[in-house]
Amino acid sequence: MAKRNTIKQKELSEEVQEEMSDALEEKVEETQDFLKTFFSQKKISSLLVARNLPFVAFLALLGLLYISNRHLAENTVRRIDKLGREVKELGWDYKSLNAELMKLTTQTEIAKRADTLGLKERTEPPIKLEVVREVK
């Protein structure tokens, strides 16, 4: 039974089928050879270690990057929390100072402070002064 090409919906030639199966068999053999050498009863060969050393170094570098990124993120979160608490405290300070200022600027408070200076509050309304100019 000939295999069908799923893209063009045509049957594949026997040559193409053989090439595909040969390539698949080669990949299976390479994988089996690697697993046999890696999991063999012998000690891990120095050739295998030397051959995979760049990959192990790359994995170690990725691990270090992961750890440093995690520390950086945690420090950033701590700093954000600290600044948030500081903003809340400054908001409370602003509100209390604003309330105190509003109390100190009321008319009765100003009159009390003016009394200590010897100034008195006016009881009569202000007088309007008019300047009369003569026409020449």
From TrEMBL:
It holds the Pfam family FtsL_2. Residues 1-23 are annotated as: Disordered. Residues 14-23 have a biased composition (Acidic residues). It comes from the Bacteria. InterPro entries: FtsL-like. Residues 80-114 form a coiled coil. This is FtsL-like putative cell division protein. It comes from Sphingobacterium daejeonense. The lineage of its organism: Bacteria, Pseudomonadati, Bacteroidota, Sphingobacteriia, Sphingobacteriales.
